[in-house]
Amino acid sequence: MNLTRLWPLAACILALGCAKFPDSGAAASTTVLRFTWQLESPIVTGFEPGGAGLPYIYIIALNMSTENPPTDLGPIPVTADGGNGFVAGDATHFILWDPIRSPQFSIWQFQDENLIESVETGVPIQFNQVQTGDTQFEVEVDMAQLVGELGVEDIKAVQVNFLSMNRLALGGTGRVWDALGDRGVGQINTPFTLQPIFNFKYTNQNQVDVEPQGDAEDPGVDIIDWSIEVQIS
Questions:
Q1: CB-based contacts of 128: which residues, under 8 Å, 6+ apart?
Q2: 3 part of a folded domain
Q3: I want to staple 68 with a disulfide (CB 3.0 to 4.6 A). Which of 90, 133, 156, 205 is the partner?
Q4: In terms of C-beta distances under 8 Å and separation of at least 24 residues, what long-range contacts does 97-101 make, across chains too?
């Protein structure tokens, strides 16, 4: 599926995962990633008073790596017209928010190294239903939804970037965007890397303010806070 041709509408695929049990009969552990990120002003749904009817684009881009530390660059924002219009660098998956569809969040997997072709593989296990006026997203995924043909134990690091923009970079003018890093000092290639091997909550504060407030022109895309929590049970 070519996402750039079908954005933002797509068929809804509901994927239900099954717990796996080893031969010993003991239940396998589950690793959940919980993402939250907050904008300076309300999320642009397109339904707010005076809205144009089209939402802004908000995405979590992910690169699942078997290396620690990864040698890949990781997911970075598209800053000029080209590619898929939203993420470049190295990425295996992304989580898309779209208020026009139900459920609002979907998980996609890239099919090529150029990040042009992608297929929808499921939906997060938990998420907040975004309402007009909300400023924060909350999404939980089971890592088993993100490993493809690999096992969860094969993933040694996860590279993450939060991406927000008023439109895809596929031509035209007036595009505004934000991602992790301080754009004011030229930090546009700053994905965050975590190790999903122990319980921990990474935050913008305990990671020394990876994302500042005010580095995007439009408060509707300006990311001001984020967290990623690893929950192993």
A1: 134, 136, 137, 138, 139
A2: no
A3: 156
A4: 97/58, 97/59, 97/130, 97/137, 98/8, 98/9, 98/10, 98/55, 99/45, 99/46, 99/47, 99/55, 99/130, 100/8, 100/9, 100/55, 101/8, 101/9, 101/10, 101/12
136-142 and 31-39 strand pairing = antiparallel
Q: Please state, in angstroms and rounded to a whole number, the distance separating the CA atoms of residues 184 and 19.
A: 45
For tokens 């990633």, name the residue. Answer: 33
Q: Is residue 66 situated within a structural domain?
A: yes
Domain that includes residue 72, residue range? 28-232
Q: Which of 117, 71, 69, 109 is nearest to 91 (CA)?
A: 109
Tell me the C-alpha distance between 131 and 129, whole Å.
Answer: 6
pLDDT at 27: 56
Going by pLDDT thresholds of 50, 70 and 90, the confidence category of residue 25 is very low
Whether 52 is in a domain gets the answer yes
pLDDT tens, position by position, 171-230: 988 999 999 999 878 888 899 999 999 999 999 999 987 899 999 999 999 999 999 999
**Given the structure tokens 């397109």, which residue do they identify?**
46
